[in-house]
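Quick start: what a row looks like.
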Amino acid sequence: MKTILKTFKVKYLFLFALLSIASATFAQEEEEAKKPVSISGSVDAYYQTNLSASDTTPQSFGTSFANELGFALGMANIIATYEGEKTGAVADVTFGPRGDGATGGYNLNQLYAYWNVSDATTLTMGRFNTFLGYEVISPVGNFNYSTSYLFSSGPFSHVGLKADFSLSDDFSLMLAIMNVTDTNNNLTGVYSAGAQLGYSGQYLNFYYDGGEVLGFEVDYTGGFDLSDDFFLGINAAYADNEGEGFSGVALYPQLATSDEFSIGLRGEYFATRSDFIDDDPSVFAATLTGSYTIENLMIKPEIRLDSWGSDVEPYFDADGAASKSLSSFLIAAIYSF
């Protein structure tokens, strides 16, 4: 009889333990379901040295970010996302030189709320990254670590209201009303307007800010999978603000040699335009980047050469003489989570 009771107690305790574990697991899953918040982000750093000039002379390419020599920091990027059934919010915070350059030291890369009005319509209000251009602020979203002249010349982010429409499986439309570029406190009553028409991964973008900063800009961004391993990205833009502006085109051929390693080239022609200058300055920039991925870490070695035309000599060579060109080597480490 004692043996039977002992066996019964053991079985009862075992069953009770299983029920307790199942109950705790269910409670944890229910708690997670009640809090649909996700945290993601990245950190990056790099080392850079000039190839055609001495590192003792402070100089860099005329583009945003990655403009320091020796060992340098990129940024820490922390993104909190809340997703409800029809509404949600994103808080995207940055720290470090790259983030400061993108936000003007504001530390808020993006901060917005959205409402999925229907399956085909979403309204977004707050601060969001620009719809113009091929490249983005976060190095995780770019193949090349350094940035292009086209990216550096356009706006990085906007503060306003936008509406995204899914017109069909292939077509999309975005319309936006925003403060003018780089304005968080609008004291002038002047606003900018934006539009984007998308078709199968190709985007035609329009931007107008009343002549306050950029004036009018039209931009094409797209790309094509030429094979399973070879991709070609394209960006072209034209901007004008009462006779001042820029234009350019950039090609981004990228080849995946394995699951872990890819190599890509950015070739860019960029020119500024002014009614006060007879010969518009132009530059050709070639950037060759390798990308090796191990788990969540990307290692990117990169060689870059910029060469200006006309009589522009913005750089110094190894002897300290004025030069039209500058070349450099960098290696960056980017970790995403």
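That is the whole record. The helical segments are 2-34, 97-103, 149-153. Residues 1-19 have pLDDT under 50 and may be disordered.
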